[in-house]
Design a protein that fits this description.
The complex is a heterodimer of chains A (398) and B (372).
Chain A lengths: L6 H17 L10 H4 L1 H16 L18 H14 L10 H12 L2 H13 L6 E4 L15 E5 L2 E9 L9 E7 L11 E7 L5 E7 L5 E14 L3 E2 L5 H12 L2 H23 L5 H29 L7 H24 L20 H14 L4 H12 L7
Parallel strand pairs in A: 1-4
Antiparallel strand pairs in A: 2-3, 3-7, 4-5, 5-8, 6-7
Helix pairs in contact in A: 1-4, 4-8, 5-6, 5-7, 8-9, 8-10, 9-10, 10-11, 10-12
Chain B lengths: L6 H17 L2 H9 L6 H9 L18 H13 L6 H15 L2 H12 L5 E4 L16 E4 L2 E12 L6 E7 L5 E7 L5 E5 L8 E11 L4 E2 L5 H37 L1 E2 L2 E2 L4 H29 L5 H26 L10 H12 L5 H11 L3
Parallel strand pairs in B: 1-4
Antiparallel strand pairs in B: 2-3, 3-7, 4-5, 5-8, 6-7, 9-10
Helix pairs in contact in B: 1-4, 4-7, 5-6, 5-7, 7-8, 7-9, 7-10, 8-9, 9-10, 9-11
Classes of the chains: A alpha+beta (398), B alpha+beta (372).
Chain lengths: 398, 372
């Protein structure tokens, strides 16, 4: 057993911290969807994307021919942790040019698609900002029941339907979307295809979907006879579900980043309770100790999954295990953190005029968003089902 | 033992529920939340006409002399509708302070005005420390001749932006806490509404040389904390009634959604995990509701509820957060939107947690009451 990172990996970590010191505002804390919620945060994200691109860190795991460094698995893990801990913005190129659009195109895109879309992503260019269209109003957890159609007419596909929870659609230039190309296929997983859609397409409408505190992160997309060139089909027609599973596997490891951002918030909380003397109160110490245990345990879980992956083992239920665990931990962290911050934590942290927000509003921000995060990318219950079925080989319960 | 409400109380509940359903839909609640005033003067006037404000005031001051239990019924129904208004600030916080500590002359001057809906009041107690303890009150009330002069900042003053009069807690020259009746429009008072998760009328008040004549002291000098404590014991229970109303509606709304929303060609309410969450929510609610009813009865029967009120508030704080967190989860993505209504309750669970003491404060009070 060896729980240490290598000297090279640690020095890479320090190099990233140097970048943070040089390019981010002092004391900057990232937040879930922080980039999307206001223009200032978005501008910082875009500027940072370009700086990361200069160092090829924006797409560091990509092969050099595509603008990356071909970085090792563990270097990617180190980068992932540091990004989340320091809140480095602009690393996704929307949702998510870097994490799954680029890697998917490298695997099963056409040469034309790779040539057109991979460079802007790697360069941090506005043309490389993506949004992703998977969920629909009636197809959330049961994604395979999606209804948006893409019917081939000549050398085009005509898209009709609706997508929901499309974060970043109001900033993106391109849409990565899954549609039904064969409505008569036998099973609901069959007859689906992936497309690249220009967000400027005629017939495509973006409607903001505000959350309960009034923030605009998500959108609905309405497709009214949207014409998409046949050359924008990704992979094989009607094989979209398999392609989607590959793309989703790139989305895994979300737990790793979440744990690192929780660690950051926790460290800030420790600092705050020391400064204010709250840490001397026994009940506060108990709460903090309890959280410390949770966070450390969650960190170990993500390393276990990461190590298995690095060995080339197929991980099926582990990312789900980590996500389910992290969802529960984030809710607890936001609840206990706001309790410790007390009555001030009810203040709306997006009101930039207010001078009372503590810790840059990071706990309140987590409180507003942690439920959404527990629902997104597979609800906590979906993840538990995967652990049950694939981790424990229990019969499918639904 | 009798765990039923009276026929009159059932009628009261029904009429309040029907009135609020008609006058203030959830869409209107959201409009009011986003408005500067944060409430509807039109609805306020109608509430006064229906006698809601004067319900539990003694008859000699224009009230109906009804039991405290009746006013908790009104608050429960307000909680179910997430109804925003200065009712709690005016009738409960300030109304009860006046009843506990004001002179007969002051009561005669103010209570009928509250009853008729013509007087809105706000309590300015908390300061920058955000402490619920007497040590958290440090604003000076300096004696200048026979007048007092107030200087300083009060935080988290509910409804100060729409109030006509304020009750301000400050430390007088002898370092005791006193309560002062102040015109909200006095020059020297600067009121700023701050944006909060509750989207309510939470304000910061800055006082610069605000003069208060001696006849506007409520109670004797140095008697302020005692009066606040007497008010708090009842007011905290009233707030819990509103919170439990919100819990009740959250469970109902979520159950209805789970019955109707389908995934995998079946209502999600049929999945065992969802059923167990809802069962846990119902168990949490039922235990709190029956305890609320007991504490309310204890108040109307003249029992001391120092410990029970704190147990109830601590419990309501945690249960409202638990129930609404599960409720949003069960709704899935749409539960996080402004368009759907469950978010109204999720936010109120956080906002109300801090009214009249958070959980840690009340745990301490319970421990003290048990003489630990």
């Amino acid at each position: 057993m060896d729980f240490k990172f290598t000297k090279e990996q640690e020095s890479f970590r320090q190099e990233i911290r140097g970048f943070v010191k040089e390019h981010l505002p002092p004391g900057h804390i990232g937040g879930i969807f922080a980039e999307e919620t206001d223009q200032e945060a978005w501008d910082l994200a875009m500027a940072t994307s370009k700086k990361l691109a200069k160092k090829k860190w924006l797409t560091l795991s990509w092969p050099e021919e595509h603008g990356g460094l071909g970085a090792s698995f563990w270097d990617r893990i180190v980068m992932s942790e540091e990004i989340s801990y320091w809140g480095i913005p602009g690393t996704g190129m929307g949702v998510s040019g870097t994490k799954w659009v680029g890697p998917s195109l490298m695997l099963f895109g056409t040469d034309e698609q790779k040539k057109k879309h991979i460079p802007p992503i790697a360069q941090g260019d506005e043309e490389g900002i993506w949004c992703t269209g998977y969920s629909e109003p009636d197809a959330g957890t049961d994604l395979a029941s999606l209804q948006t159609q893409a019917i081939k007419v000549g050398d085009e596909y005509i898209l009709n339907g609706q997508k929901v929870w499309t974060s970043c659609a109001h900033h993106a230039k391109w849409l990565w979307v899954i549609c039904r190309t064969d409505p008569n296929a036998g099973k609901k997983h069959q007859g689906l295809s992936l497309f690249l859609v220009d967000m400027e397409s005629e017939g495509l409408t973006v409607r903001p979907l505000k959350n309960f505190v009034g923030h605009h992160v998500f959108n609905e997309l309405f497709f009214n006879d949207v014409k998409v060139p046949a050359a924008n089909l990704v992979g094989t027609e009607n094989n979209g579900w398999a392609h989607l599973m590959t793309a989703l596997s790139f989305e895994r490891g979300v737990g790793l980043g979440q744990v690192a951002s929780c660690r950051r918030l926790f460290d800030e909380l420790i600092h705050y309770t020391k400064e204010t003397g709250l840490i001397d109160k026994p009940e506060i110490r108990q709460k903090l100790a309890d959280l410390a245990v949770d966070i450390e345990a969650a960190r170990m879980l993500t390393y276990e999954w990461a190590w298995k992956s690095a060995q080339g083992a197929t991980v099926i239920h582990e990312p789900s295990r980590d996500k389910a665990n992290c969802d529960v931990m984030m809710e607890k962290l936001s609840r206990v953190g706001t309790e410790i911050l007390g009555v001030y934590s009810q203040i709306d942290v997006t009101d930039k005029d207010n001078r009372w927000t503590k810790l840059r509003g990071s706990f309140e921000h987590l409180y507003y968003y942690c439920i959404g995060m527990a629902i997104a990318a597979g609800t906590t219950d979906t993840q538990r089902n995967i652990v049950g079925q694939f981790g424990l080989q229990l019969p499918r319960a639904y | 033992m009798n765990l039923d409400y009276t026929k009159e109380q059932e009628l009261l509940r029904k009429s309040v529920a029907e009135f609020l359903a008609k006058e203030c839909s959830f869409d209107h609640v959201k409009e009011l939340e986003d408005s500067e005033q944060g409430y509807s003067p039109k609805i306020w006037k109608k509430m006064a006409q229906l006698g809601w404000m004067e319900l539990y005031f003694p008859e000699e001051y224009g009230g109906l002399g009804d039991p405290f239990e009746d006013v908790t019924i009104i608050l429960e129904e307000m909680g179910k509708k997430a109804f925003p208004s200065p009712f709690f600030s005016t009738v409960i916080l300030c109304g009860m302070i006046l009843l506990e500590g004001a002179s007969a002359k002051q009561k005669k001057a103010l209570l009928p005005k509250i009853a008729s809906g013509k007087l809105i009041m706000a309590l300015a107690q908390y300061e920058s420390e955000g402490s619920y303890l007497p040590e958290g009150i440090n604003m000076p009330a300096q004696l200048s001749g026979s007048h007092y002069v107030l200087n300083g900042t009060k935080m988290f003053v509910q409804d100060a932006n729409v109030a006509d009069k304020l009750i301000v807690a400050a430390r007088d020259d002898k370092q005791g806490i006193s309560l002062f009746l102040v015109d909200a429009g006095s020059s020297g008072i600067n009121c700023k509404k701050i944006s909060t998760i509750g989207k309510d009328n939470t304000c910061v008040l800055e006082f610069t040389d605000v003069k208060v004549p001696p006849e506007d002291l409520i109670g004797k000098p140095g008697e302020g904390w005692e009066i606040l404590e007497k008010m708090s014991k009842k007011a905290v229970v009233a707030k819990c009634a509103e919170m439990l109303g919100g819990c009740s509606e959250s469970i109902e709304m979520t159950t209805a959604y789970a019955k109707q929303r389908e995934q995998y060609s079946t209502p999600i309410g049929g999945f065992q995990a969802i059923q167990h969450y809802l069962a846990d929510m119902k168990i949490a609610f039922d235990t709190s509701l029956y305890f609320l009813q007991k504490v309310v009865w204890m108040i109307d029967s003249g029992h001391d509820t120092t410990m029970e009120g704190s147990v109830l508030k601590a419990q309501a704080n945690e249960q409202y957060k638990f129930i609404t967190e599960r409720a949003v989860q069960i709704h899935g993505g749409i539960g996080t939107t402004r368009e759907f209504n469950i978010g109204l309750f999720y936010r109120r669970a956080k906002a109300f947690e801090y009214v009249l003491g958070d959980t840690d404060y009340h745990y301490d009070k319970v421990a003290q009451a048990m003489e630990m």
